[in-house]
Design goal:
The chain contains no helices and eleven strands. With about 130 residues, the protein is mainly β.
């Protein structure tokens, strides 16, 4: 664990720095018998521990640890000239933020403003790709 001085008799956390951050990805290809295509199934998982967004060690400015799971399926032509991608991002709908700020009086004494990450919501889609030669 990283520490940064002492706060209330204990080691203070280094701001904007998770203790651990990791990523794992896996793909599995299934050859399809029709018209020289294959299906590629994929899963990605990203995890990080809590992050403190303030040098003063304010516990109200802590983003708790979270994990993000993304799933995908891609239908690919054998020569990889074209493909169709289906994906779901943030499958578990994890809430996470980019920043947390305290809001002082008179607006909201003791309150905090959270800036949501643009990827903090579950989303899904389809992508069509064609590779020109």
């Amino acid at each position: 664990m990283f520490s940064f001085g002492r706060q209330n008799g204990r080691a203070a956390s280094l701001p904007f720095t998770p203790t651990f951050k990791g990523y794992i990805a896996a793909d599995y290809t299934i050859p399809l018998g029709w018209e020289r295509h294959s299906l590629v199934l994929g899963a990605n998982y990203h995890y990080q521990t809590k992050v403190l967004f303030d040098v003063s060690q304010d516990p109200g400015e802590i983003q708790k640890g979270y994990g993000i799971l993304d799933l995908s399926g891609t239908l690919v032509e054998i020569n990889k000239k074209y493909s169709i991608d289906f994906f779901v991002k943030n499958v578990l709908g994890q809430h996470f933020v980019d920043e947390i700020f305290p809001i002082g009086a008179p607006v909201a004494p003791g309150g905090y403003l959270q800036i949501l990450d643009k990827y903090a919501e579950r989303r899904f889609g389809v992508a069509l790709r064609y590779h020109f030669e």
